[in-house]
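Q: I'm building a small set of examples for a reading group on sequence design. Run inverse folding on the following structure and report the sequence directly after it, with nothing in between.
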């Protein structure tokens, strides 16, 4: 299997593209199948490495997994092998997959115990798991870290509902605590809960399974514990990060692209942020149509000062799209300050963009000022390596807009988040191939 994309850039693209199912939702929803012994049918599952690894892990622990078609599976967790969680296979597979921490909440809730290896994952700064563990502890779980085996052993034989104020509005942390709380005794209140659409989807699905969660969509969730949950069907939302990436791609390459079935009402502030960069987009039914644009001009604030785009917990702008916004701003008219508040080291791919001819001032690890070229100068193709999933796609967009040939190495980082991205771009007319 080759490990690089070769891209000949500078060509406008045209056509329709369908966003995959949401990766971040998939990791939560798939973990939730462990909460019941009944059959679950899940559709619009993205065919990407992180998700496929989690499905494989569910199979290893005894879940009956059946693939009905390309994106639809059934899961039945009626015979889980609890000894599996102390095995070397689990240490190796669970340790390499950041999303594996999401199975802890459901396991604690249903079986009263779990073991998890110390997690690994993306290099985007210190993503702590404290929120998860502190939440479980408040519900009454007891943790014991075994330095010899590298496992956390958790005893949760008597989970009790309680008031929990999360130290940060972590999406995965909130999801994990919610899944533990639905089968706890009594009432749990979670304040400073994340309220991303993915989390709303999870809560709605749990309610269909028989959970009693209220406050969905707000930062205050109330969960009345129940004794058991049943099976249900669920369809994932389209991935908003992909949708944002494709809006950026269209603008940067001057292409006419239609993004299909976007669930526009679930996109929050995302379309508006791209409009602030001067990108025209129109809603046609539930599709976003982006016309081919020669130029797009960044708005200023009302008093004329430079536009700042910063990330924030939902309903603020998702940090996963800041790198896309940064790249798209390179060819805008005007300047913008990109402020990455939520993670450190997410801007460390800027040096590659400078090599391509972008005008960017990296102020510090969290802030970069982009001085738009207004398409007066084309970026030039270079060889580069992708540091993480989101930066990888941003570099891919830059390469597609650049003059000449670019090579992007370490593309498995991109493929962890975007399914068959090369084939889907080829269908729009992109000159991209594996080498």
């Amino acid at each position: 299997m080759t490990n690089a994309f070769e891209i000949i850039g500078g060509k406008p693209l045209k056509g329709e593209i369908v966003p995959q199912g949401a990766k971040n939702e998939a990791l939560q929803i798939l973990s939730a199948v462990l909460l019941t012994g009944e059959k679950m049918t899940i559709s619009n599952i993205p065919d990407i490495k992180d998700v496929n690894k989690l499905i494989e892990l569910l199979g290893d622990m005894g879940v009956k997994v059946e693939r009905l078609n390309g994106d639809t599976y059934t899961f039945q967790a009626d015979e889980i092998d609890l000894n599996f969680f102390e095995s070397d296979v689990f240490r190796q597979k669970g340790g390499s997959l950041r999303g594996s921490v999401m199975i802890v909440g459901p396991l604690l809730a249903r079986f009263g115990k779990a073991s998890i290896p110390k997690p690994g994952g993306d290099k985007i700064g210190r993503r702590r798991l404290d929120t998860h563990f502190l939440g479980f502890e408040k519900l009454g779980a007891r943790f014991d870290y075994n330095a010899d085996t590298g496992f956390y052993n958790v005893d949760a034989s008597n989970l009790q509902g309680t008031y929990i104020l999360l130290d940060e509005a972590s999406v995965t942390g909130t999801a994990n605590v919610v899944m533990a709380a639905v089968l706890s005794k009594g009432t749990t209140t979670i304040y400073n809960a994340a309220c991303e659409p993915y989390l709303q989807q999870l809560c709605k699905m749990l309610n269909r399974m028989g959970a009693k969660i209220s406050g969905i969509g707000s930062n205050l969730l109330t969960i009345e514990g129940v004794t058991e949950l049943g099976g249900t069907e669920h369809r994932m939302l389209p991935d908003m990060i992909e949708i944002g990436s494709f809006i950026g791609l269209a603008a940067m390459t001057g292409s006419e692209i239609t993004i299909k079935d976007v669930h526009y009402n679930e996109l929050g502030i995302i379309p508006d942020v791209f409009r602030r960069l001067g990108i025209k987009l129109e809603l046609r039914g539930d599709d976003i149509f982006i016309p081919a644009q020669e130029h797009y001009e960044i708005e200023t604030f009302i008093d004329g000062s430079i536009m700042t785009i910063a990330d924030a917990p939902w309903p603020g702008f998702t940090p996963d799209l800041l790198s896309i916004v940064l790249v798209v701003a390179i060819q805008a008219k005007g300047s913008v300050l990109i402020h990455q508040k939520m993670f450190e080291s997410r801007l460390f791919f800027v040096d590659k963009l400078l090599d391509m001819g972008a005008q960017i001032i990296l102020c510090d690890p969290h802030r970069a000022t982009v001085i738009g070229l207004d398409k007066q100068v084309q970026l030039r193709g270079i060889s580069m390596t992708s540091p993480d999933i989101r930066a990888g796609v941003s570099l891919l967009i830059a390469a597609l807009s650049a003059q000449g040939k670019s090579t992007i190495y370490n593309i498995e980082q991109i493929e962890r988040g975007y399914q068959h991205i090369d084939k889907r771009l080829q269908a729009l007319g992109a000159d991209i191939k594996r080498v």
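The chain has two domains: 4-19+238-434, 23-235.
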